[in-house]
Amino acid sequence: AKAIGNGSCFLKNQQLHSIEIQSVSLKLASKLIIHLVQNWQEEIKSEMKLWIRIITSCCEDEQETDLRLAAADALVNVAPFFLTNQNLLLGLSDTLLLWKCVIQLLQSEEQIVRDAAAGVVRVALSQESIFRKKELDFHVVNASMALDLTFSVLCDLLQQWKQTSSGIPVLLEWLLGKEDLKDFKATTLVGNDYLFDKGQANFWAEKLTHSRQLSEHLLLLIPESHVSPCDQEQLQQLKRLASDQAWLVTQLLQEMPPVPEFSRSIEFTKLAIQKERISICLKILTLLDAGNQACRKQEGLAKDDC
Fold this sequence. Notes:
- The protein is about 75% helix and about 0% strand.
- It has helices spanning about 1-5, 5-10, 20-40, 45-60, 65-85, 90-105, 110-125, 130-135, 145-160, 165-175, 180-190, 200-220, 230-255, 265-305.
- The longest helix has about 40 residues, at about 265-305.
- The relative contact order is 0.08.
C-alpha cells in the first residue's frame, strides 16, 4: 500500500513526468489496488482514496490522450471489483465517482478514448446478473451505444445494491450539471461578440442528448424507488438549486440582444440547452415528490387501519 501512497507525488507533480511514465504508474497502481483488495492484507482505505483521486484527475478533459487511455484501461481492469461488484467495496459515493469517470471518458471528443472507455460497459454486460436483463451481446457494444448502456447498467446496479434512494440524488446532480451555469454567467455578462460556432454547438447538443438518455433511465427507476427522509432533504436542496438556476438562465436569455438564429452566439446555445436540462431535472424531482407524498399517504392509511 505504501507504493500507492507514493502516488501523491504523481498527482501533485504530473507536469514533471513524461506521459508514458504517468500511464505506466497508473496501470501498476491499479493492479496493486486489485491485489490488495483481493487479499485484504492490510488497511488500505487512505490509499484507495488517493488512487481514486488519481483516476479522477487522469480522466479530466485537459489531460493528454495517452493518460486518459491509461485511466480507461485501469477502469476496465477494476470494473469487476469496484464498479459492477454485487458488494459495494468502495461504498456508494466512491463507486459512483468512478462511474462518473467512465461517463466523462465516454463523452470525450476523441474516438479512441471513447472506444477504450466502452470496455467498462462490455465488462459489465459480460456479468451474468446484468447480461440476463439486457439480453445484448457484450461483444457488439461500441462507443456510440456505450453511454446509454452505462446509464442503464448503473440504474440496474443501484437496484441490486438497494441504493436507489441515495443514488438518485447523485444522478440528478449529474443531470443538472450545476458547474456549467457559472461559465454561462461569466461569459454571457462579458459579451457576445463572436458568431455561432457549429463545432461548439454540436458539443453542447451532445451534452443535451446525454442528459435526455440519463433522464429516461431515471424515469424508469422512479417507480422502483422509495426515497428515505435523509435523501428527501437532499432532493429538496436540489430542487431549490434547480429553481434558482432556472430563474438565472431565464434572466440571462432575456438580457441577450435579439439576433437572427444563424448568428446566435455559443452562449445562447449553452443557455438554451441548460434550460432544457434544468426543466428535465425539475420534472423528475416533481415526480419523486409526488411519489413520496403518495407513499406517506398510504403509510398513514395503513396506520389508521391498525
